[in-house]
Design brief:
By secondary structure, the chain is α+β, with helices and mostly antiparallel strands. It has helices at 41-51, 97-105, 107-112, 149-184, and strands at 68-72, 92-96, 128-129, 135-138, 144-146. It folds into 2 domains: 41-147, no CATH class; 148-185. It contains 4 helices and 5 strands; from the N terminus they run H-E-E-H-H-E-E-E-H. The structure holds zinc ion (ZN).
């Protein structure tokens, strides 16, 4: 069915100019991030207190006081992670911006040093190499303890002592056997 085209029958009228009667109001700030994806301020402060320096310490050792940023040992992947464990203090190490970039470019070395942890692995069970050369286990209270550095020194000393005692014992036994053989002639 054909319809007649709509035609305007009245002239366009200019209305009265719009006048603003209220002042411009600043709209309330809208949070661009719907959820928190980084560590809490408390966690960050605990990590700073624990580490006190860049944990990686490769590119920044010439810089007296590099700016530190929290590094997630477990990569969050695209769009963050809903797993709250990624933001716990043992999952965060403080690193300088230089080494933070380096970590992303050298994942294998980062995993080997415990600076990064594969997904599904408990970061509290993976020792972290610090610039002091020792490996430390991070706990959930913002503390750290030597993973193997202290005990391996003790174990090595015990091993050396045991080897020395064994050498003496074997030597003494040989002497005994030799003297017995000589006496038997
Ligand atoms: Zn650094």
């Amino acid at each position: 069915m054909r319809r007649a085209a709509l035609t305007r029958r009245t002239a366009l009228r200019a209305g009265s100019a719009m006048v603003r009667r209220t002042g411009l109001r600043r709209a309330p700030a809208v949070r661009s991030r719907p959820r928190q994806t980084g560590p809490s301020q408390d966690t960050k402060l605990a990590a700073i207190a624990r580490d006190g320096q860049c944990v990686v310490g490769l590119l920044c050792h010439d810089h007296p006081a590099p700016e530190l940023v929290p590094n997630h040992r477990v990569n969050r992947g695209m769009g963050g992670s809903s797993d709250p464990a990624v933001n716990q203090v043992e999952s965060i190490i403080m690193v300088c911006r230089l080494d933070n970039g380096w970590l992303e470019d050298h994942p294998e070395r980062a995993y080997a040093a415990g600076w990064k942890v594969r997904r599904g692995v408990d970061p509290g069970r993976v020792p972290v190499r610090y610039p002091d050369g020792f490996r430390w286990l991070l706990d959930g209270r913002g503390g750290r303890s030597l993973a193997d550095g202290g005990s391996s020194v003790v174990e090595m000393a015990l091993l050396v002592a045991f080897a020395a005692a064994l050498t003496l014992a074997v030597g003494g036994l040989l002497d005994l056997v030799l003297s017995a053989a000589t006496a038997g002639r």
